[in-house]
Amino acid sequence: MIELRPFSSLGGANHGWLDAKHHFSFANYYDPARTSWGNLRVWNDDTIAPQSGFPPHPHRDMEIITYVRDGAITHQDNLGNHGRTVAGDVQVMSAGTGIAHSEYNKEDETTRIFQIWIQPTRGGEKPSWGTRPFPKTDRAGQFVVLASGFEGDGDALPIRTDARVVGATLRAGETAEYTLGSDRRAYLVPATGAVEIDGVRVNARDGAAIKDADVVKITAIEDSEIVMVDAA
Hints:
The protein has strands at residues 2-5, 11-14, 18-22, 40-48, 52-59, 63-70, 72-77, 82-86, 90-94, 99-105, 111-118, 128-132, 144-148, 157-158, 163-170, 175-179, 185-192, 194-197, 200-203, 207-211, 215-220, 224-231. By secondary structure, the chain is an all-beta fold. The strands form four sheets. It has a seven-stranded mixed beta sheet, with no helix packed on it. A seven-stranded antiparallel beta sheet has the order 2-3-4-11-6-9-12, with no helix packed on it. It is globular, with a radius of gyration of 17 Å. The two termini are 16 Å apart. The model has no long low-confidence stretch (mean pLDDT 96).
């Protein structure tokens, strides 16, 4: 089953410095049909103006994955972590028992990110933060694991939940498959391009909520950059 959620149907708000679109209920946007997808709780599509950002604020009990699409995001937290994550790369913050952080676009260009929140399946642990590059050449024509709560997922950033965040870059006409399992759910968003899944066209920044699928087969209609969450 695939439920298409066109970009034009997403909730959101434009704050001037921040133009936020929400795939799920968030802040002042509430849709009872879009509160979560398995353990996936938030998928925000944020456009952040140059030299602006989110001042220090707290989180707890959430796995927060930031995928940078354009520009860069600079993170700082009360644990002393500080880092800059650039386009195509990923950062993970495990809020755990509590953390306060800020995120700023300190660039002279617009930054665009996907920020994904997944509910943890392990609790009571200390907070942590990490970032790493994921060159697009490494995921050309195939999915690579960007963040994972499963052992054996190599260099993926660790998260404390029964989930994976994966990415792929496909040229027009290429197909990639992902083994999901009928007991799990996936949520896929093309950062760029357009793809087809089981006859359903998914354009850039649309969401595709997928369930009851042993294998997800994605064919690129245009050159595409894809991010997907596999969640319990």
